[in-house]
Amino acid sequence: MKKRIWRIIIGAVVFAAAIIINIEWLQIAMFVISYVIVGGDVVKRAVRNIFKGQVFDENFLMSIATIGAFLIGEYPEGVAVMLFYQVGELFQSYAVGKSRKSIASLMDIRPDYANVKKGDELVRTDPDEVQIGDIIVIKAGEKIPLDGKVIEGYSMIDTSALTGESVPREVEVGSDILSGCININGVITAEVTKEFGESTVSKILDLVENASSKKSNSEQFITKFARYYTPVVVIIAALLAIIPPLIIEGATFSVWIYRALAFLVVSCPCALVVSIPLSFFGGIGGASRKGILVKGSNYLEALAETEIVVFDKTGTLTKGVFNVQEIHPEGVSKEELLELTAYVESYSNHPISLSLKRAYGKEIDNGRISDVEEISGHGVVATVDGRKVMAGNIKLMKMMNIPYFKGELIGTVVHVAVNKQYIGYITIADEVKPDSAQAIKELKAANIKQTVMLTGDNKSVGSKVGKELGLDKVYAELLPADKVEKLEELFLQKSKKGKIAFVGDGINDAPVLARADIGIAMGGLGSDAAIEAADVVIMTDEPSKIATAMRISKKTLKIANQNIVFAIGIKIIVLILSAFGLATMWAAIFADVGVTIIAVLNAFRALNVKNL
Amino acid sequence: MKKRFILEGIECANCAAKMENAINKLDGVKEATVNFMTQKLVIEGEDEKMPIIVQEAEKIVKDIESHVVMKKA
């Protein structure tokens, strides 16, 4: 790189000196010297490539154009074309290198070592050699090497490399920690729960490094275009140099050869070919900064064409965690109803019981409860503080002949009676995620025609969530196989070019993820099935990231299209102008190098996703 | 069979496209992709022809950009 810069600088100085000097032979000699300094390697490569059968090679085209300029006496143009061509190449490789590096640093999450506790000693070990059950110590500032569970210590950890989330997460004894995160302040001791190969960090690196090389339509278009563009322009240039001087009266070879040479300068498709993959690469890199992993530029492109977004409910739009929603007492206080219910249910580990205990929040005093009897499929009967308490579903109330509240309720309902007297009910349901409604709103703003939810849950729960979030359609009580069928139905409703995205958490919905045009997996952390089946993985638990991904996709596509139109447009205009002798070789240089630089700078914008 | 390689030092996007095109034309290749930005070459081809395909691919890479080093990923 340094050598190339110096060659360009020295060549440019000699070139500038040559322009000032007005001793003709010395001037020409200096032009030749600067040409050799700047473009010697290009000519050398051109010669070598011809022997290898690479006819329409850029080096060859540039050599012909510049040597041709020398032969018709246009020395400054000859040198300038080569000089600027080299500047453009240098800029290009700098830009490409820089963007490759910025993505690489983004993915610099591989831990180098683990501190394994052996007796009283800490041994620095290769993460590959650490086994499940080993105890590791993570000091402040270190990367968490393997997935594990904290057994000692308290700290804040930075998950931004995995999730794009900038707010640090608190961990304490019992918390799960994921490899690839950074421990910010305290010292934590953890028990390893997964081998390195199975740990989050390995899964993610694998995903990024082996992302499918599938290309977007714009990339395919541009490489195809380049394949025909160069030969066509070169052939026209050859005809332009020979035919008009022969058939048009008074036309001279030197004029038409000059025009033909300008054609050759513009014949290089570099700007286009480099700026399109650069834009997509930037878009994918920018997305991963936001915790959105896109497995290929074709998927990034498809996101912008999405018409219908289909969601799974549990774990995607809702938290997948049950919580007490409503406490409705009759004749007693809310606190008393909750307390009694929590006590009766305290012997069970069912998610419903756990949610009641959580809502109660106080320690359960086992001495106050006796004679616990679980009636399978109905509920629990127990004696609390000497009173006989019954808690369970409608069937239990009917069995015990207790009149109960008969209105329509949503979610799981626990009816409670004391000494055969009804005292009210508690409803428990899965909660929607805080940003789910926002996610749907943002998708609508992004011109998504339909938002649909598929769920295995019952109709009342499904339609409540649907209404709360503003979804267009809800299909409830579906078995996993029914979900694929519903998706097939939706395929008939989209336009020909439109795409369907399915968003799920990878549990029970891998076939649907695979069937959709774009499978989006939520909360990729921890679910291997989702990471494998999906085309896009959202590392955080936020459904609103889907709209973010679509905005990134649209921005990237816009940039790519701008580059296509701009670069092809300028080249064609300059070609036409120079055919009629209205553009000089200098304009041709701009159409080549200038366009490359502008297109590359434009492509760089794709990496910036801060405000999306 | 799928094989992955790193094309170290690939600098010209058009050359990457040319390589991809030429490797795709090799006998026994089902699909070959060159990703210019990630410097990756993925060849999917018939098992028994793979050794020859890899050899030919390396030659193509060298012919188009002589300083590029093709390494196993």
- Largest beta sheet of chain A, briefly? 7 strands, mixed
Please, what is the average pLDDT of chain B?
Answer: 89
What oligomeric state do the depicted chains represent? heterodimer
Low-confidence stretches of chain A: none
CATH architecture of the domain at 320-431 in chain A: 3-Layer(aba) Sandwich
Average residue-wise pLDDT of chain A: 87
Q: What is the CATH level 1 assignment of the domain at 320-431 in chain A?
A: Alpha Beta
| Spatial extent as radius of gyration of chain B | 11 Å
Instruction: Determine the structural class of chain A based on helices, strands and strand pairing.
Output: alpha+beta
The CATH topology annotation of the domain at 320-431 in chain A reads as: Calcium-transporting ATPase, cytoplasmic domain N
Total strands of chain A = 22
Number of helices of chain A: 21
Indicate the percent of residues in helices of chain B: 25-40%
Summarize the biggest pleated sheet of chain B.
4 strands, antiparallel
| Overall 3D form of chain B | globular
Helix share of residues of chain A?
40-55%
CATH class of chain B: Alpha Beta
According to CATH, what is the topology of chain B?
Answer: Alpha-Beta Plaits
Transmembrane segments (chain A): 5-21, 228-248, 260-281, 560-580, 586-604
Main location (chain A): membrane
Domain P-type ATPase A (chain A): 110-209
Protein name (chain A): Cd(2+)-exporting ATPase
Chart the SSEs and their pairings:
The complex is a heterodimer of chains A (612) and B (73).
Chain A: H1 2-20, H2 24-51, H3 58-71, H4 75-106, E1 114-118, E2 121-125, E3 135-138, E4 148-152, E5 155-158, H5 160-163, E6 169-171, E7 176-177, E8 182-183, E9 188-192, H6 200-209, H7 217-247, H8 253-266, H9 270-289, E10 292-294, H10 297-304, E11 306-312, H11 313-317, E12 318-329, H12 334-344, H13 351-360, E13 369-375, E14 379-384, E15 387-392, H14 394-399, E16 412-418, E17 421-432, H15 436-445, E18 450-454, H16 459-469, E19 473-475, H17 480-491, E20 499-504, H18 510-515, E21 518-522, H19 528-533, E22 536-538, H20 545-579, H21 585-604
Parallel strand pairs in A: 11-18, 11-20, 18-19, 20-21, 21-22
Antiparallel strand pairs in A: 1-2, 1-3, 3-9, 4-7, 4-9, 5-6, 5-8, 10-22, 12-17, 13-14, 14-15, 15-16, 16-17
Helix pairs in contact in A: 1-2, 1-4, 2-3, 2-4, 3-4, 3-8, 4-9, 4-21, 7-8, 7-9, 8-20, 8-21, 9-20, 9-21, 10-20, 12-13, 15-20, 20-21
Chain B: E1 2-8, H1 13-24, E2 29-35, E3 40-45, H2 50-64, E4 69-72
Antiparallel strand pairs in B: 1-3, 1-4, 2-3
Helix pairs in contact in B: 1-2
